[in-house]
Write a structure and sequence with these properties.
heterodimer, A: about 70% helix, B: alpha/beta, D-Maltodextrin-Binding Protein, domain 2, 20 helices, about 50% helix, about 10% strand
C-alpha cells in the first residue's frame, strides 16, 4: 500500500517556482536584455538624446585595434590568474589538510584576504609596489632591478596578476580543503599500504577524486577573472601603461563610465557575455567528461 | 504593565523627535565634490559658515571620490532622477556638461531667476572665460582654479650646483643632468598630469593649437592637431631622457606628487593647487616657477590655461532650492572670503576684487609661490590657442593620449608614431561625441 501525499493542484508547482523565477527575471534577464537593447543605441552620457543605430556600435568596436589587444590581454591575464590561483590554493590546501598544530588559525588566516574589497586589495598592492613609494619596490631598486610598472607593461601585468591571484586564493583554498577532507582516508591508506609514495598517492588518488571541486572552481575562477577584476585593475594600473592591462571588462568600464559611451560599452558587454557563455558551455561539454563524481 | 511602560516610552520619544525638528522646514542643498585632504576641510568649513550665516538653507557637502568618480556619480544620479543641486566637475568635463542642455541650470540664468546681485565682470576673465559661452554667459561657477607650475626644491638645486632656477626647457634638461650626477639617480625631473603638462599646457604656453576651432571653444566639429613638429620634438626629447631617468614618468594623474615632497624629484611640474600639500609635507626650501619653454619658438611663453574645477547646478530642481544655491554662490563670491580661500588653499582667486585685495595686503611679497600661476595666466593677451580648450569625451581622451605617451616613453613607438596615433584615436572620439551632442 502506498502512502504518499499527492498534490493535485496543477498550479501549485508553478506558484512554488514563482519567487525564484521573479528573482532570475528581475536580476538577470532584465539587465541583460537592457544591455542588448542599449548596444543598438547611441546616447549621450546624460541620456537626454537617444537614437537607434543598429549594428553601428558593433562595427565601430570591431574596427578598433585596441579591442583585439584587450582580448589578447584578457586571455593572458585570465589564464595566469586562473592557473596560479588554483595551483597555489591547492598546494596550501594539501598542506593544511595535514595534522598541523595551529591548523585552525592557519585556515582562518588563509580566508581573510577574501573579505578584502577588490579596490582595497589593489591599493594595498600599490603601497607595496609603487616604483618610488612602495615598501617592496625599494629593495628591488637597490638590487638594480629597474622595477617600473608605470611604463613597463609586463611589470604592470605581473602586479595586477599578483593582486588578483592573492585575492582569489582564499576562496579556492576553502573549497579545495573541503574537497580534500571529503576524500575517504581508507582509500589513501590502502594506497600507502600498497607502497605508493605521497606524490603518487596525490596524482593517482587525491587529484582525480578532487576533480569535481577543481572543475567547479575552474568555472567560478574564469567568471571571476572575466568580471570581478576591474576594481583591482582600476586601482593598480588604470588599464595602463599603454593599455597593457586593459582587459575586456576594464574596457567596458572605461568606455562606459569614463567615456560616457554607453552604446559602445553595452556592445562590449554583449560580446563579453557571449564569450563567457561559450566558455562555460565548452567547459561543461568537454572538461566535465574528465570529471569523476 | 509592560505595555504601559512601552507606551510611555514611545510618547516621550515622539515628543523629543518633534522638539528636535525646527519650527519650519530648512531647504537642503546637496553639494557633491571631489576635494581631499586640506581642501576637504575647506569645503566643509565653507558649508558650515554658510549654514551658520542664515537659517533658511542648509548646504550639505558630500565627498564622492576622484574628479571622474564625482562626475560619473552625478551623471548616474541624474539618470536615476536623484541628482544633487550642486556638483563639482573638473575642467575637462566642461564640454560634456555644457552639451547636456536640460540636465543643467546655467549659472547666469540661476542668478537672474533668483534675483541675486551678479556681475559677471567682477570675475577674472582668464578663469570665467573657460566656463562661459562664446557670448560671455557664465554656465558654471568657478570654484577651485589652478594652473600648472614648476615646483623647485631649492636646497637640492643648490647642492647640485644649479645656480639659477631653470627658465627654458634646455635649462631644465641641463639642471636635471646635474641633479642626476649629484645623487638623484632615479629622477632628474618629472611631472604629474602627463597630458595636461606635455600636450595641453605645453601647447598653450607655446601658442600652438591642440585642435582646430580655437581648441574646440568655437564648435564641436574640432579636429586635433597636436602632432606638430614642435610636439614631436618635445616628446622625442623626453623619450631620450627617460632612458637614463634624467626624466622619469610619474603616471597619468597626481598620485606620484609625493616624489617632490620626499625629495626624490627636485624639479616637478604639477598643479599650483599642490601648494597646501607641499607646505605641510616638504621639509626643505621650495618655490614655484613658471613652466619652462623652448626659447627658439616665436612668441613663447604665451599664457597658460586653467585647470581645477567649477560648480555646476543641476536642472529640474525647485525654485526655492535654486534660490538657496544662488545665495550660496553670492556668499562664495564675497571678497574677503575669496581672498582667504586663495591664501589658504593656493587655488586662484576668482574675483578681481579678491586678487586686488591680496596684492594690497602684501601677501605675494611673503608668498611669491602663490602668484606664479596668476602671472602665467595673465602673461600675455590670450590667443585662439591659449584661451582654453573644450573637447567632448575629454576625460577618456586624456587616458588615450596618456596611453600613447606611455607607449612612446617605454620605447614601443617613436614620438611621431605615438602622437599621430593619439590624434587619430582622439579624433574618432570627437566624431562620436559630435553625433550625440547636437
Amino acid at each position: 500500500m502506498e502512502k504518499s501525499v499527492v498534490f493535485n493542484n496543477k498550479l501549485l508547482p508553478y506558484l512554488l517556482l514563482v519567487p525564484q523565477l521573479i528573482i532570475t527575471l528581475v536580476f538577470f534577464y532584465w539587465p541583460a536584455s537592457q544591455a542588448v537593447w542599449q548596444s543598438f543605441l547611441r546616447e549621450d552620457a546624460f541620456g537626454l538624446t537617444s537614437e537607434f543605430v543598429g549594428m553601428e556600435n558593433y562595427q565601430a568596436l570591431f574596427a578598433q585595434p585596441e579591442y583585439y589587444k584587450a582580448m589578447l590581454t584578457t586571455l593572458v591575464f585570465s589564464s595566469l590568474v586562473a592557473v596560479l590561483s588554483l595551483s597555489i590554493a591547492l598546494l596550501f590546501a594539501t598542506q593544511a589538510d595535514k595534522n598541523l598544530k595551529a591548523a585552525g588559525a592557519y585556515k582562518t588566516l588563509m580566508i581573510w584576504p577574501y573579505a578584502v574589497a577588490p579596490a582595497v586589495a589593489g591599493v594595498l598592492w600599490i603601497f607595496m609596489f609603487h616604483p618610488s613609494l612602495g615598501t617592496l619596490a625599494r629593495p628591488l631598486r637597490w638590487m638594480n632591478f629597474d622595477w617600473n610598472p608605470l611604463l613597463n607593461g609586463n611589470h604592470a601585468m605581473s602586479l595586477v596578476v599578483m593582486a588578483a591571484v592573492w585575492k582569489q586564493i582564499s576562496y579556492n583554498f576553502l573549497f579545495f580543503l573541503a574537497g580534500l577532507q571529503s576524500i575517504p582516508r581508507s582509500v589513501i591508506e590502502a594506497g600507502a599500504i600498497d607502497g605508493a609514495g605521497p606524490m603518487r598517492r596525490f596524482w593517482t588518488i587525491v587529484f582525480p577524486l578532487l576533480s569535481p571541486t577543481t572543475f567547479f572552481l575552474l568555472v567560478v575562477n574564469v567568471v571571476y577573472v572575466f568580471f570581478d577584476t576591474f576594481g583591482i585593475i582600476d586601482a593598480v594600473t588604470g588599464g595602463g601603461p599603454a593599455g597593457a592591462t586593459t582587459t575586456m571588462v576594464y574596457k567596458v568600464f572605461a568606455d562606459g563610465r569614463l567615456g560616457g559611451d554607453l552604446g559602445g560599452s553595452a556592445a562590449q558587454s554583449v560580446v563579453l557575455m557571449v564569450i563567457v557563455i561559450a566558455l562555460t558551455a565548452i567547459q561543461f561539454r568537454y572538461v566535465e567528461r574528465k570529471v569523476q563524481y | 504593565m509592560a505595555f504601559r511602560q512601552f507606551g510611555a516610552a514611545a510618547a516621550v520619544a515622539v515628543t523629543l523627535a518633534i522638539a528636535a525638528s525646527p519650527a519650519y522646514a530648512v531647504t537642503e542643498i546637496q553639494w557633491w565634490h571631489a576635494m581631499t585632504g586640506g581642501n576637504n576641510d575647506i569645503v566643509n568649513k565653507l558649508a558650515e559658515d554658510f549654514n551658520a550665516s542664515q537659517s533658511d538653507y542648509k548646504v550639505v557637502p558630500s565627498f564622492k571620490g576622484s574628479y571622474p568618480d564625482t562626475m560619473n556619480a552625478g551623471i548616474a544620479a541624474f539618470r536615476a532622477g536623484t541628482a544633487p543641486h550642486i556638483i563639482q566637475v573638473f575642467e575637462v568635463g566642461t564640454a560634456t556638461m555644457m552639451s547636456a542642455t536640460g540636465a543643467i541650470k546655467p549659472v547666469y540664468q540661476l542668478m537672474k531667476d533668483a534675483g541675486e546681485p551678479f556681475d559677471p565682470k567682477a570675475y577674472l576673465p582668464a578663469i570665467t572665460g573657460y566656463y562661459s559661452t562664446s557670448k560671455g554667459d557664465m554656465l558654471s561657477f568657478p570654484f577651485n582654479s589652478s594652473s600648472m607650475v614648476m615646483w623647485i626644491n631649492k636646497d637640492e638645486l643648490k647642492k647640485a650646483g644649479v645656480a639659477e632656477i631653470p627658465k627654458t626647457w634646455p635649462d631644465v634638461f641641463d639642471a636635471a643632468k646635474k641633479l642626476k650626477t649629484a645623487g638623484h639617480a632615479t629622477c632628474g625631473f618629472s611631472n604629474a598630469w602627463a597630458t595636461w603638462a606635455h600636450i595641453e599646457q605645453f601647447s598653450a604656453w607655446h601658442n600652438v593649437p591642440i585642435g582646430t576651432k580655437a581648441n574646440g571653444l568655437d564648435g564641436f566639429d574640432t579636429v586635433l592637431t597636436f602632432n606638430s613638429p614642435l610636439h614631436v620634438r618635445h616628446l622625442q626629447t623626453l623619450i631620450d631622457l627617460q632612458k637614463d631617468k634624467t626624466y622619469d614618468y610619474s603616471g597619468r594623474a597626481n598620485a606620484s606628487e609625493n616624489r617632490f615632497a620626499s625629495g626624490e624629484c627636485a624639479i616637478f611640474l604639477t598643479s599650483s593647487g599642490y601648494y597646501a600639500t607641499a607646505k605641510s609635507t616638504a621639509k626643505f626650501d621650495f618655490t614655484s616657477a613658471p613652466m619652462p619653454y623652448y626659447p627658439d619658438v616665436e612668441g613663447a611663453p604665451q599664457n597658460s590655461i586653467i585647470g581645477g574645477a567649477s560648480l555646476w547646478v543641476m536642472g529640474g530642481k525647485k525654485p526655492e532650492e535654486y534660490k538657496g544655491v544662488a545665495k550660496f554662490f553670492a556668499f562664495l563670491s564675497d571678497t574677503d572670503r575669496q581672498a582667504k580661500l586663495h591664501q589658504q588653499s593656493g587655488y586662484l582667486p576668482i574675483t578681481k576684487a579678491a586678487y586686488e585685495k591680496t596684492v594690497k595686503d602684501g601677501f605675494y611679497e611673503k608668498n611669491p609661490t602663490l602668484q606664479t600661476p596668476l602671472k602665467e595666466l595673465t602673461n600675455k593677451e590670450p590667443t585662439e590657442n591659449s584661451r582654453g580648450l573644450r573637447f567632448g569625451n575629454m576625460v577618456q581622451m586624456r587616458d588615450i593620449w596618456a596611453e600613447e605617451i606611455e607607449a612612446a616613453l617605454a620605447g614601443q613607438k617613436t614620438a611621431k608614431e605615438a602622437l599621430d596615433a593619439a590624434v587619430m584615436r582622439g579624433n574618432a572620439m570627437l566624431r562620436t561625441f559630435e553625433k550625440t551632442a547636437k
